[in-house]
Amino acid sequence: MRRREARAVEALVDAVAAPRPPLPPVADTDAVASFATWIALAPQPNRALLHAALGTLALARLARRDRAGRLALLRRLGRHSPLAEGLRATAAVSYYGDAGVLRALGHVSPARGGTRAHHASRTVAA
Amino acid sequence: MTVLRADVCVIGSGAGGAVAAAELAEGGLRVVVLEEGPARGVPDATGRPRDTLPRLYRDGGQVATIGRPPLMLPLGRGTGGTTFVNSGTCFRTPPAVLARWSGEHGIDPISDAVFERVEAAIGVAEVTPGLAGRNAATIRRGAERLGWSGGYLRRNAVGCQGSGVCAFGCPTGAKQHVGEAYLPRALAAGATLVTGARADRILVRGGAAAGVAAATADGRLEIRAGAVVVAAGAVHTPLLLAHSGLGGGSGALGRHLTVHPATAVWGVFDEPVDMSRGVPQSYYVDEFASDGFVFEGIAGPPDYLALAAPFAGDALRELMLGHRHVAQCGLMVSDHSRGRVASVLGRPLVRYDLGARDTATVHAGLLRLAELMWAAGARRVILPIARAGELRDGDPAPLRDLALRPRDLKLMGFHPLGTARAHEDPARGVVDARLAVHGVRGVHVADGAAVPGPLGVNPQITIMALATRLAHHLLATEATACRS
User: Fold this and answer.
1) Quick check: A106 and B324 CB within 8 A?
2) Residue A122 pLDDT more than 50?
3) Which residues contact B210 (CB under 8 A, 6 or more apart)?
4) B290 touches chain A (CB under 8 A)
5) How far is CA A71 from CA A13, A60, A90, B142, B406, in A?
6) What is the domain extent for residue A28?
7) Which of A70, B111, B124, B300 could bridge to B304 as Cys pair (CB 3.0-4.6 Å)?
8) Do A113 and B410 touch (CB under 8 A)?
9) Residues B97-115: what's their mean pLDDT?
10) Cα Rg of chain B (Å, integer)
11) Chain A partners of B50 at a C-beta cutoff of 8 Å?
12) pLDDT confidence bin for A17, thresholds 50/70/90
């Protein structure tokens, strides 16, 4: 993700998640990195659309608008493209899935029983 | 090029492929399983939806249909297929569906013995109320106050601790997905599993299966086999058949796609619900099954709620701060709409438009679901429709009076079926009643693609049962041919 896109993502996440104490600011979370991972793991057509959407938001100076203005821009985008819901959902899960945010919400992640090995060792590599 | 020889090559290791592979290998056949994705296991399941969803689901969890409305179509990728990341709900094929298959498609009903064999293999049992958690109890309370039919779901989990993240990989290994319950059996019986192998063509010589050509990170791979079982799922199986020049005679290949359109409603309660604790999908309401929809309680951790709830800004923050008081229930429609799958630049393109009848069914289902939430004691009911906002004070009018359009809805499709449907008549089906592709010997389909139409219930048991029956049929009738 380019720096300009990262700024747009941070502004987008801030508008969607609307953090306020006791929730930490976006800069104190790994939300932007998580958003970048979602883009990186997307199939190529989706990835291109997401980059285009972020570019559009950056051109519209998303980061310079207040939260209400950013959400209004997202709603306008939503009238023309289902991509807006994708951006909203990714921003929301990126922030509210941060470990610190989950702790602030009082959520404890489930215990893991991660002792069972992959069965990959019994496969044949072509 | 690497060449492997087998009696049967199974493409895909999900609900159909893993089951077929285990049954065939234990029956004495040499089996090679090709799996496009990686090996999956407990170490992949961190219990964190945000981090597992893009990694464990195909295409980062971003497979979507085009059409009105666009639907997210979550599909697993890796050993176990979608069973690794599903909710573990186990319904047998409804008797009315089996009767329809028999009457209209010439498909023999699946016997109780086959269902019992599958259920024993994956540890199916009814979830207990204590393990189900308070989200399920809330749904149950609403249903019982209204006198609606329902019950605790049967699931494939052994030693479940109610981690609340079934759809993101079970972090304790309790869920008996087919990568856990069947693939080890196949391997123990001598089968070979090749992960990271994308089958790109079924080889045919003289009108009969000759094997499968695949691509791996290390180069080309060819499996030489007298029988092929295709189990790549309803989105990818038709593309593989089409690319191989098979199954196109009826014009049904890639068509007749059904997805069980699904959505959810959230209720906000005075008392804590804690929907992140307990089995996420554990209670169902089938009062309206004959009207084309059922409810299944579905829950998850806070990040799952943030992803799903149609809120942003202050409204989302307030919802999240009060997440312990939110209950969620899903609505699943047995669809009459039909979609199609085509290949564009080598990738599947899924087209699906929600028809007027199904839109009306979703509308009716949402009204009933709101009624259930009120009956359970909800203060507010949040809808998956931006235009309708939320309902308060038990007043359904904003939803009831809405001229609902497909594009208003936020929908998902969890169960793609029917794109290589079974029909005894070669003019109407891609595969015959025994799941053999019409017009070629030795090529079979054992996944949701062969299932002719919506089931109205979660399909994993149906697919596993069909794969079991196919394997037994191959062992009984074609083992000699396969070996030759």
Assistant:
1) yes
2) no
3) B203, B204, B224, B225, B226
4) no
5) 10, 12, 14, 35, 23
6) 3-108
7) B300
8) no
9) 97
10) 22
11) 34, 93-94, 96-98
12) very high
- Sign of the alpha-carbon dihedral angle for B144, B146, B147, B153: negative
The Cα of B116 is separated from the nearest Cα of chain A by a number of Å equal to 26
Write out the CATH class of domain B127-157+261-333+355-408.
Answer: alpha beta
Select the residue of B51, B187, B302 nearest A105 (Cβ to Cβ): B302
Average pLDDT over residues A76-83: 82
pLDDT at B484: 55
The mean pLDDT of B134-148, rounded to a whole number, is: 98
End-to-end CA distance of chain B: 23
Contacts of A18 in chain B (CB under 8 A): 312-314, 316-317
Q: Tell me whether residue A74 is in a domain.
A: yes
Catalytic residue numbers of B, as ranges: 415
How many percent of chain B have pLDDT more than 70? 99
Instruction: Tell me, yes or no, if B38 comes closer than 8 A to chain A by beta carbon.
Output: yes
Assigned CATH topology for domain B2-60+76-123+171-256+416-483? FAD/NAD(P)-binding domain (3.50.50)
Please give the tally of structural domains in chain A: 1
Residue A117 included in any domain: no
From the list B46, B195, B312, the residue facing A16 with the nearest CB is: B312
Q: What is the pTM of this model?
A: 0.95
Query: Chain A to chain B, count of Cβ pairs less than 8 Å apart?
Result: 176
Residue A31 is assigned to a structural domain of this protein: yes
The answer to whether position A90 is within a domain reads: yes
Three-class SS state of B455:
coil
Q: From the CA of B324, how many Å to the nearest CA of chain A? A: 9
- E strands of B242-333, at which residues? 261-268, 283-285, 293-297, 326-333
CA nearest neighbour of B85 among B17, B182, B171, B185: B171
Three-state DSSP state, B242? helix
| pLDDT for residue B110 | 98
Q: Which of B41, B171, B187 lies nearest to residue A110, judging by beta carbons?
A: B171
Residues 302-341 of B with CB under 8 A from A: 302-314, 316-317, 320-321, 323-324
Nearest CA in chain A to B219: A126
* Top-confidence residue, B220 or A117: B220
Interface contact B47, partner A, CB < 8 A: yes
pLDDT recorded at residue B301: 95
Peptide bond preceding B69 in cis form (omega within 30 of 0):
yes
Q: What is the mean pLDDT of chain A?
A: 87
What distance in Å separates the CA atoms of residue A117 and residue A60, rounded to the nearest whole number?
49
Q: Say whether pLDDT at A123 is over 70.
A: no
The pair of three-digit structure tokens given for residue B170, joined into one six-digit string: 């079970």
CA torsion sign, B79 to B85 to B88 to B89?
negative
The closest CB to that of A16, out of B218, B276, B313, belongs to: B313
pLDDT of residue A113: 66
CA gap B442, B290 in Å, rounded: 38
Chain A residue nearest residue B44, CA to CA: A114
Q: Closest Cα of chain A to B94: distance in Å? A: 34
Structural domain spans, chain B: 2-60+76-123+171-256+416-483, 127-157+261-333+355-408
Both tokens assigned to B73:
């179509």
